[in-house]
Design goal:
By secondary structure, this protein is of the alpha/beta class. It has a single domain, classed as Vaccinia Virus protein VP39 (Rossmann fold, 3-Layer(aba) Sandwich). It has seven helices and ten strands. The strands form two sheets. An eight-stranded mixed β-sheet has the order 4-5-3-2-6-7-1-10, with helices on both faces. It has a two-stranded antiparallel ribbon with strand order 8-9. A hairpin with a 6-residue loop joins strand 8 and strand 9. Helix 2 crosses helix 3.
């Protein structure tokens, strides 16, 4: 078992089950993940997902992430609607209870057979009896097409940021054991959270590391989050920022007018590292 500080703000390349075995119990504040759907997925350009036909490994992964998640906290997991029986069984076996369900309508169809597939979905899972969040999200949220340029099932920042904002607070630790191209980690960083990302494939882990190294959170590889907010790293504005609160750097307690504005300073202070699991 290694101290949690050795995992924080890193993208780790390795088997998430083995990596999480080295993490202390009850050390993570929120889990947001898009695991393999167990459907043998293959994109139109032939890309596949590692472990997409292995429910036993997925069950072990959720058992471990339940162990490292603190009591009375939340996990949000995407899933395949036609494998909901399998997912529900392994979630409950890991000690989770479903407490809400989110849907993201799409303007395009991912596939069409008996019906056009035009939405994504995820369950909000509770470990223990957590309090309701201060801001209760609607169960239908915004989606923007990423083009899947970095990963065959790439999720947009705009879909993940509301979840991180609602179910964690500044400086808390957000874990994604199937981090892919790093969208969860990037969203956490932009919202002043610490992150732990684990990815079994080296090519996607490298992409995630590169995205997180981009300064200021304005990543040219990221095409799904077009909002631009002015930065004020050395002074406070006299009026409240657009999101209605001041973001505070957890390292130096300096206040910024928006989460994006403090990214460069924060990266320098935490000494961002990108590494491989031992």
């Amino acid at each position: 078992m290694r101290p949690i500080s050795e995992f924080i703000n890193r993208i780790l390349c390795g088997d998430c089950v083995e990596v999480m075995k080295d993490m202390p119990s009850a050390s993570v504040d929120f889990v947001l993940t898009d695991p393999p759907y167990l459907v043998n997925y293959r994109s139109r350009d032939g890309r596949t997902i590692a472990g997409d036909n292995d429910p036993d490994t997925l069950a072990r992964a959720f058992a471990q992430l339940s162990r490292v998640l603190k009591d009375n906290r939340f996990c949000v997991s995407f899933y395949a609607w036609n494998r909901v029986d399998v997912f529900m069984r392994l979630w409950k076996a890991a000690g989770f209870s479903p407490v809400a369900h989110f849907v993201w309508p799409k303007r395009y169809a991912s596939s069409a057979h008996f019906a056009r597939a035009q939405h994504e979905q995820a369950y909000l899972l509770a470990k223990g009896r957590p309090r309701a969040p201060r801001v209760v999200l609607p169960d239908v949220l915004e989606w923007r097409y990423t083009g899947n340029t970095l990963h065959p099932t790439q999720k947009p920042l705009v879909a993940l940021r509301p979840l991180i904002r609602a179910f964690s607070t500044v400086a808390e630790i957000v874990l994604d054991p199937f981090v892919g191209s790093g969208t969860t980690a990037l969203a956490a960083l932009l919202l002043c959270r610490r992150f732990i990302g684990i990815e079994v494939r080296k090519d996607y882990a490298t992409i995630a590391q590169q995205r997180l190294r981009k300064k200021g959170g304005e990543n040219p590889m990221n095409t799904d989050d077009k909002q631009r907010t002015p930065s004020y790293p050395n002074r406070q504005r006299s009026t409240a920022p657009r999101d209605g609160f001041w973001a505070t750097c957890p390292q130096c307690r300096h206040k910024f007018a928006t989460p994006k504005a403090w990214i460069v300073k924060y990266l320098e202070r935490i000494g961002y590292q990108a590494g491989q699991a031992a």
